[in-house]
Amino acid sequence: RYGFFVYGGAETYFTYALLFLGILLHGVSYDFYYVTAYIYVDKKAPVHMRTAAQGLITLCCQGFGSLLGYRLGGVMMEKMFAYPQPVNGLTFNWAGMWTFGAVMIAVIALLFMIFFRESDKEITAIDDRDIALTQGEVK
Q1: What parts of the sequence cross the membrane (predicted)?
Q2: What digits encode the pLDDT tens for the residues 106-137?
Q3: C-alpha 21, offset from chain centre
Q4: For residue 88, is pLDDT > 70?
């Protein structure tokens, strides 16, 4: 998605279309991220703590994460990608910023694939207690 923003622009129909493709992929990538996070938390948290664990992940991602992202990200982007003098009429290196984001996502995805592996031994069968607790939540 960020790659589309690196090459997207208002110069031609193709580069304009890249911007829209990046925007369309935003919703899909957002959904995959949050659904995957909630499924992971649901699998790892004990049944009686699942609601609290999912609330905590929401607080971390949409509360503290957003606050820190806006504050620290803005300062970092200004230091790294703002031009001291306008270059070709631009005061900000947008392509550099989106490239940085794409590289960071690739690094994080690689780290995720390395460190978040599940073994067959960790997958357990659902026992009667889990079934009873789940049925109690539904009622």
Answers
A1: 13-41, 53-72, 92-116
A2: 998 899 888 877 665 555 555 666 666 665 55
A3: 17
A4: yes
Q: What is the DSSP letter of 8?
A: -
Pick from 55, 28, 61: nearest CA to 42: 55
Tokens 């539904």 correspond to: 138
Q: How many CB atoms lie within 10 A of CB 58?
A: 15
Spell out a b/e string for 96-130, using b for 16 or more CB atoms within 10 Å of the CB, else e: ebbbbbbeeeeeeeeeeeeeeeeeeeeeeeeeeee
CB 1 within 8 A of CB 25: yes
Residues contacting 72, CB < 8 A, separation 6+: none
Sign of CA dihedral 106, 108, 112, 114: positive
Exposed/middle/buried for residue 10 (C-beta within 10 Å: 0-12, 13-18, 19+): exposed
> Helix (H, G, I), strand (E, B), or coil: what is residue 52?
helix
Token readout for 29 is 């990538």
Residue identified by tokens 């550099």 is 96
